[in-house]
Sequence to fold (848 residues):
Amino acid sequence: MLQTAFNGLVTGIIIALPALAITLLFGVLKFPNFAVGSMMTVAAYMVYALNVQLGWPLLPATAVVAVAFGFICIALDYVTFRPLRDRGGITLMVASLGLGFVLENVARFAYGNAARSFAIELARPFRFFDIRMNREQMTAMVVATIAMALMYVLLTRMPVGRAMRAVADNPSLALVRGIDSASIIRWTWFITGVLLAVGGVLIGMDRALEPPMGTSYVIAVFSAAILGGLGSPLGAFVGALLIGLVSELATLVIPPNYRIGIPLCVIALVLIFRPQGIFGQMYIRR
Amino acid sequence: MSTVVCFSAILALALNFQWGLGGMVNFGLAGFYALGAYSCALLMLKGGFNTFFAALGAMGIVALVCGLVALVTLRVTEEDYFAIVTLGVGEMLRLVALNEDWLTKGALGLTGIPRPLGELIPPPVYLYFMLALSVVLVAACVWVLGRLSRSPFGRVVRAVREDDVVAATLGKNVLWARVRIFAIGGALIGLAGSLHAFYFQYIDPTQFSTIVIAYAFMAVIAGGRGAHVGAVAGAAAVMLLLEGSRFAKELVPGLESDQLAAVRIIIIGIGLIMLLIYRPHGFMREYRLQVPLKHSPGQARPQPPKEAPT
Amino acid sequence: MSEVFRVEGLHAGYGAGDILKGVDLCVATGSIVTIIGPNGSGKSTLVKTLAGLLRARQGEILLKGASIRDYTPPRRVHAGISYVPQEYNVFRNLTVLENLKIAREFMSGGRAKGPVVSDELVALFPELPSRFKALAGNLSGGQRQMLAFACALTVKPELLIMDEPSAGLSPKYMSDIFDCIKKVNDTGVSVLMVEQNAIEALRISDQCIVMATGRVRLCSDAASVLDMPDLQTLYLGDAASGHESLNRASAA
Fold:
């Protein structure tokens, strides 16, 4: 059972990155972005191109793609969401759904449906007490934890991070306090891009790289963000760990194929009984 | 091909009714569609019902499930949260269809589904019969929904959509109205599912993927949210676009089938986004005088946004 | 005496019609101007338009002679206008210190030097430092108002615009706020405020402007308005003397 819990923890920490992206986007832009899964997929394939096709080591490949993808996300927002900025949640949701289709199929177009994987050296898993851990899992834990720590510093100690939280809290007040919201939106998308690129690579390491890869995580990611409270970065982290743990542990009692049922139930239960999640705030949106 | 348009038309009508008129976004459309098709098929294959009663049964089952969903999510009043919940329910339904082999044969799907009057009408003529039947049913749905919209119930539906708090204070039973709206939409989805099962005579989970909701949204938006006839016209237009894109194969040689399939979906995705940006009110209007919605893009000077920054 | 701020023929509104139907006013440098008027007169709409949250449909807004009518709110802030909204005027999910830091970083356009909370600010708001780590949303109404005020002053503005600074405050905080406003004005900041507590506000003001149905009805010095036997008549009466007073004030 400890093994299952560990696996759950690893899954959780991998989900934490896109969950944080979702919650930041929701806080600043006020809509749930369904394209998050396919964004991770595209970024992962970009890393694949550098890693497998050009022979770069994984770390520099990821770093370069992360920055590039940050800019790509800014561009995607400019083309898709900016024209719809004052239209309300549903329109933006549907648009993000459309964008998700486009991105996933761009990946499919370029690389086909066959599963692929990154070029990383095989290494023997090692045992820690009774738990088997493989290299990919350890890397994921380390990378994701570092990413979370950096995000924490950004959001609490740096002006940009504070401004993002301010815009999420009260957009019009942010304006009259001199914050240029267009710039903050760009920053939010850039950070989203970086988080999703890293998240995509971690997922690609954990399982095979194929077009539906990212979208299969969408439910779990949203569940994590909603459980923690949409708009709360700490919530995204805690929510992700919980979802990961509970989903894996639940497979001990329910059939593994229904693993996705846990996040689904969590979404429904949280939204019905406590929509602000654990750490979130009630938003009044009219 | 046009027969398939009819199924999409019914789905579009259902979405239009639930969302366009009732303000309840059903992102789980694909899952309920699957529920309708599977219910109908199973009622016939395992339950021995004939096609007519199986279809009715399917409609009833989906209506019931939708009604339950609406009942349970009563407290979820935010539009996008409701959408996420319905997405979850839809996914759950598809998961069951995929995994409960003993019932649904999982990924293999169900074959040999009978069709209405299948024995009586010879195959070559049958397709026309199916088409005629579908068209008649679409027209019937439009008529029924039209009557409902113009009735007192329809006014309650609109009131609930615009502001359910106000509607509640006016004494309208908001809870009951929401449940009924969603259930009626569910019945239509069940009908579409049954027709799907009859037409293809074989169903499996891959036929009900998320792209279904994209088609339905495009149809509803193109036709004008809230307009019944518009939804049908929108469905026809979208299907035309899709079938037309099949011919891309002739135009662009050298693409494999995987890539072509991908291109078609890319076109749909881009089409959906462009529709939202440039034609959010579609090409037709709701039957009564259009009061400009808060977020209409047609206003001369958009106000500096308060809720979402530019 | 020169003027720091002038509004001419301002029209603005939310939907089909205009709420502001041609507002004219001016603020002399270093003075305190209070706007009073009945509900629905357009006072709130006016300050929102001046802050830049609502677009002016017609007319002109001039800060030290330069037009700021087409400036976005952040740009107006950098040009020298500080705005304190009536409610939701602090970032509730951020701490007091973070609120101040944001104000300082972004209102100065990144040019601020020195500590976040200058000695002058502490002198005006002695309660602040002890509450630095508290979440703004957990403060009492009066404390939030003080914080909002302090944030608007982290950079010294040309003009401070306040929307009902005393709304919902207990009497202690109310007199504190007006004391603060006076002290701030003494350092050279011009103040334009909308107020319901007419008498209290007018006691510290130089000029009084009365608005009704989207227009300025009367513009006069505060003292004479205070002396008027029945303030109510202002709300109902017409503006026969209005425009003369405007000319008189700006010529002085």
About this structure: The first helix of chain C runs from residue 43 to 51. The domain at 3-251 of chain C is CATH 3.40.50.300 (Rossmann fold). Chain C touches chain B through seven residues (CB under 8 Å).
